[in-house]
Specification:
This protein has 198 residues and is mainly alpha-helical. Helix content is 69%, strand content 0%. It folds into 2 domains: 49 residues, Homeodomain-like (Arc Repressor Mutant, subunit A), CATH 1.10.10; 142 residues, Orthogonal Bundle (Tetracycline Repressor, domain 2), CATH 1.10.357.10.
Length: 198
């Protein structure tokens, strides 16, 4: 690529390239060279916008977390619509898309990246925000009386995140058999949904 060419939205171009590398070849293949080659930009471009590669990766994860916060607003607004299980299943399906699953693995295995993203007491980035999203949604449903009044929404959220992640981990495609996920969601929520009727 010729030098001096103005790159529009270069950060987004680099993030999209990193996601493609992650999906195609996995976290081990994600290097600054692989990202710039995939983005079809000069090797030094990444370092003009980011202090180092872990800074780039941290921003990539933060961008995904920002999307998750947007999803959380929509999920909370969905309280009282459809069924609780349908809303949770849809949220988990969107949450555990192949890029997010790959990013969770990346954060888990890259110590420096995890250290840059760590917030004491919050857990693994992306999964911690997902837990908060589900707990907030279930709190809303509890307030509406669609979930048992004594439901432990934090524990339920942990179970849902763990189950959804296990079903999605290691896949490079969207969770194809949603029935498995529906079964997990319905099993985790069965007690608090049945008891609210009593």
């Amino acid at each position: 690529m010729p030098t001096g060419v103005h790159l529009r939205d270069v950060r987004q171009q680099l993030f999209a390239a990193a996601e493609r590398v992650l999906l195609r070849a996995g976290a081990n293949a994600l290097t600054s060279r692989a990202v710039t080659a995939e983005a079809d930009v000069a090797k030094g471009v990444l370092h003009r916008y980011f202090a180092d590669f872990d800074d780039f990766l941290a921003e990539l994860v933060r961008e995904r977390i920002a999307r998750l916060r947007d999803q959380a607003v929509l999920l909370r607004a969905a309280a009282g619509t459809r069924t609780v299980a349908e809303n949770v299943t849809a949220a988990l399906t969107e949450l555990f898309d192949p890029v997010s699953v790959a990013l969770v693995s990346l954060v888990f295995f890259r110590d420096e990246l995890r250290a840059r993203l760590r917030r004491p007491g919050h857990g693994l980035p992306i999964l911690a925000e997902a837990r908060t999203m589900l707990a907030d949604y279930l709190t809303g449903e509890r307030e509406l009386g669609r979930v048992a009044a004594d439901a432990d929404v934090d524990s339920l959220s942990l179970s849902l995140i763990g189950g959804g992640h296990l079903l999605s981990a290691g896949r490079r495609e969207v969770l194809s058999d949603e029935r498995e996920l529906v079964q997990v969601v319905e099993t985790v929520l069965a007690d608090v949904l049945q008891r609210k009727l009593l």
